[in-house]
Amino acid sequence: MADAERNELLETIKNLTEQLETTAAQLEKVTTENAALRRKLERMNELLLNAQQARFGQSSEKKKYVLPESEQLRLFNEAEAEQDVKAPEPTEEGLVAAYNRKRKRTMDELIQGLPVKETIIKIPEDLRTCDRCGGKMKPIGKKLAFRELEVIPKQVFINEVYIETYACEDCEKDTGFANVMRAVTPERLLKHSLASPNTVADVMTQKYVDGIPLARQEKIWARDGIELSRGTLANWVIQCAQRWLKPLYRQMKKALLESQVIHADETVVQVLKEPGKKPTSESRMWVYASGERSAKPVRYFEYQPDRSGKHPAALLKEFTGYLVTDGYTGYNKVEGAVHCGCWAHMRRYWKEAMPKGATTDTSKAAVGYEYCNKLFAMERKYADYPSWQRELARQAFEEPLLDAYWSWVEKLDPQEGSKLEEAVVYARKQKAQLNEFIKHGNVPISNNLAENAIRPFVTGRKNWLFSDTPRGAESSAIVYTLVETAKANGLDPSAYLRCVLDQLRFLGKSPTTAKLESFMPWSDVLRKAIENYT
Q: If DSSP codes are grouped into helix, strand and coil, which group holds residue 324?
């Protein structure tokens, strides 16, 4: 072969090689871009499915609905799989008994405990004439025709309070001058105001228990013929909370810090006139709840202008028990407590990472979700055990499940940016806190108690939307603390507010700790006194 031909062939090979390398580089680039776009598409689908699930899907992660493919197939071939020629035929009685219809309450059960008023329908006097002989008819008995539920509209009246005066007759006979004594005059709730304990308690109950904002209450009062502005109602709530209820609020904080277990959570609240902040900025309402086994159930609310961890650190600086939270890093600033995690949040992460139609055979998130379900199922078995016995049961039966779970978690290699990665990262970061409950029988495995405690505030916020001032937000925290603690102790919050607002007026400006303790919802003295307000 001539040199010219050889050189030409080599040049052609060189060009083809360069083209091949260029094509390979372009292919690699396209492949990388395609993989990135595919991950982005999967992420967007994930977000879309989560949004659809949040809006239209099942709201609770407690219900077990993940089935492996083998179980799903059984739904279609169940007739063949479960056939048994020796199976007995059901009887008519058996069919009826198997259908567990919810029993309807009887009329007597519905009206049990309600006061009864009799209305007797009479024949007019001039018509009580016998149609046979024309004689006078007399009543000989009565027959029940029907029952109906009556509601009497709110009665509004002025209560004039007089102080009765007494004189000693013997002193007057002996000396000519009578020794005079008067009953103790209760202090007014608010100076130069018509506000009474019953009225203020009613306003507070409607706002903080029933979620009726003051603007709507203003209209309700107007229908009853009373012109009370929402500004006046707000003054009643704020001033009474600060003047009368705040000492009880502080006493409840002391009881909270004596608990072995405290749950904590927080939610957004908007305060329009927060110094140094825009009206649209977010503040926080924190809630702290004593453990489920506490002898003194407390639900303590605290308003703060932000979500900084310095706030729980300040409140719980003397607390040395077990703090159950959702994993928010701000709680790590609480130094003296043992930090415990929330398996309900862990389960929620796995659920959010599950694609539509996920099974344990097709989705790693579904496997994690199923591990959590098994753990909660075990916990339900030991719910009523004494703390020491529940601790032993956990270590014997739940610890092996946890070992298997963490071994499985460590092997996961989730796709970057996916919901599965978020679940895995949360699990690995929270491992120590999530495992803490195994060592302590009095520590629950979830922070659901705090979430349930803060739910009434979140529900009420949908109606009244925001607080006007920090003082108003603090007053809301005070009233929420009292009514939710009353509810946690099985008391009617309205009766509790009426009782304390009425009786605290007789204690003076600086009631002793012992006196305040007698007004706590778990106090036997209070429970006896509250009977007069129900």
A: strand
Question: Which long-range contacts link 154-159 to residues 24+ away (Cβ below 8 Å)?
Answer: 154/224, 156/224, 156/225, 156/226, 158/194, 159/196
CA distances from 127 to 54, 355, 478 (A): 69, 79, 63
Q: Which residues contact 196 (CB under 8 A, 6 or more apart)?
A: 159, 189
Distances (CA, A) of 498 to 164, 503, 506: 23, 8, 14
Tokens 């904590």 belong to 264
Half-sphere exposure of 279 (CA within 13 A, CB side): 7
CA 454 to chain centroid: 4
Whole-number percent of the chain with pLDDT over 90: 45
Q: Containing H/E element for 299? A: strand 299-304
pLDDT single digits (tens) 152-167: 777 888 888 888 888 8
Helix axes 246-257, 470-488, angle to 10 degrees: 60
Residue 147 contacts by C-beta under 8 Å, 6 or more apart in sequence? 107, 111
Residue 195: count other Cβ atoms within 10 Å of its Cβ. Answer: 20
Q: What are phi and psi of 336, to 5 degrees?
A: -85, -10
Q: What tokens were used for 12? A: 């052609």
Question: Which DSSP string corresponds to 411-456?
Answer: T--PPTTSHHHHHHHHHHHTHHHHHGGGG-TTS-S--HHHHHHHHH
Closest CA to 488 of 442, 443, 518, 455: 455
Query: 440: which residues sit within 8 A by CB, 6+ positions away?
Result: 322, 338, 340, 387, 391
Measured CA to CA, the distance from residue 457 to residue 46 in angstroms comes to 31
pTM of the model: 0.76
Q: What would the mean pLDDT of 308-317 be, rounded to a whole number?
A: 94
